[in-house]
């Protein structure tokens, strides 16, 4: 699912979903160009439209990730974050680097900056092995029928509490870019049960009241859908009125016979999050009540949400 605040100029690249049927290998990825630090014009399209460094950077990173995955399934390249870093750097280095003067200067400015959240997975008869790779504040998740939404990544910011990140929108400490070193973090695991894996930019999860509400949106739209296409459309309708940013999401459901089985597997979980009060937002004109409700629901939700999250960096 992909939506732009300014059609044709959204700084999220189109989300990536690739699956190699013979091996069961797949890649999900999203890319959010960093519009603040990459605001300078970087490319003029044949139709005359000018695009920023953030717009270009997100699309270059998408191209590099797709090329890396094609190399992996062809057994020509190592299946490692280090190799993906090399591919990103090679494609960024090959891109034109001439940009116009920007109002963003000094340490904040980046050349072709973008976030990335990717999940490399392999589906088999006994479950799915996965590796989450990321830079910046886009996120990867697992959605499990019995326990709900689990973060598989940790934002590259100095604020480590997910609820406080919603309240503060802290600056990122690491993004993919062409002019400075960057790091890709990685986390891997395995699920021996049907699951949904997804990657999303902050246009999806950055404008809800609590992390639990993102799960509520996913489950509510799933319950009202009869197909994957309808689920994507309902997600778009749900997120566009509340987000103040471009929003992109890519997901795969592994281990379900069909869409009806997928929807039925999460029916009980949807009922439980409704009973838990995660949708009972106090009136907006009472900010103290909203804050107390956020704190209370986050404390009850946090343990399961962070179960697979990597530890805090030193």
From TrEMBL:
InterPro entries: PPM-type-like_dom_sf (IPR036457). This is Serine/threonine protein phosphatase. It comes from Streptomyces ferrugineus. Residues 1-12 have a biased composition (Basic and acidic residues). Residues 1-21 are annotated as: Disordered. SUPFAM superfamilies: PP2C-like (SSF81606).
């Amino acid at each position: 699912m992909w939506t732009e605040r300014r059609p044709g100029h959204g700084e999220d690249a189109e989300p990536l979903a690739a699956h190699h049927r013979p091996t069961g290998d797949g890649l999900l990825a999203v890319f959010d160009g960093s519009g603040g630090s990459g605001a300078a014009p970087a490319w003029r399209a044949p139709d005359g439209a000018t695009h920023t460094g953030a717009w270009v950077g997100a699309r270059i990173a998408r191209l590099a990730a797709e090329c890396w995955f094609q190399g992996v399934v062809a057994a020509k390249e190592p299946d490692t974050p280090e190799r993906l870093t090399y591919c990103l750097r090679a494609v960024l280095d090959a891109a034109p680097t001439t940009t116009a003067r920007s109002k963003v200067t000094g340490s904040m400015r980046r050349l072709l900056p973008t976030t990335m959240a990717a999940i490399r997975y392999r589906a088999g008869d006994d479950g799915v092995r996965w590796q989450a790779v990321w830079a910046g504040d886009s996120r990867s998740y697992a959605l499990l029928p019995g326990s709900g939404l689990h973060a598989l990544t940790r934002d590259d910011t100095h604020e480590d509490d997910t609820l406080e990140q919603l309240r503060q929108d802290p600056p990122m400490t690491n993004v993919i870019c062409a002019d400075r070193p960057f790091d890709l973090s990685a986390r891997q695991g395995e699920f021996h049960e049907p699951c949904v894996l997804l990657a999303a930019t902050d246009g999806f999860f950055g404008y809800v009241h609590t992390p639990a509400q993102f799960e509520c949106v996913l489950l509510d739209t799933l319950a009202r859908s009869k197909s994957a296409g309808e689920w994507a459309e309902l997600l778009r309708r749900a997120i566009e009125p509340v987000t103040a940013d471009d929003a992109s999401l890519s997901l795969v459901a592994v281990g379900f016979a069909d869409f009806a089985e997928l929807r039925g597997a999460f029916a009980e979980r949807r009922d439980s999050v409704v009973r838990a009060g995660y949708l009972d937002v106090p009136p907006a004109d009472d900010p103290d009540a909203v804050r107390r409700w956020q704190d209370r629901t986050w404390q009850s939700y946090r343990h399961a949400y962070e179960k697979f999250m990597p530890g805090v960096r030193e």
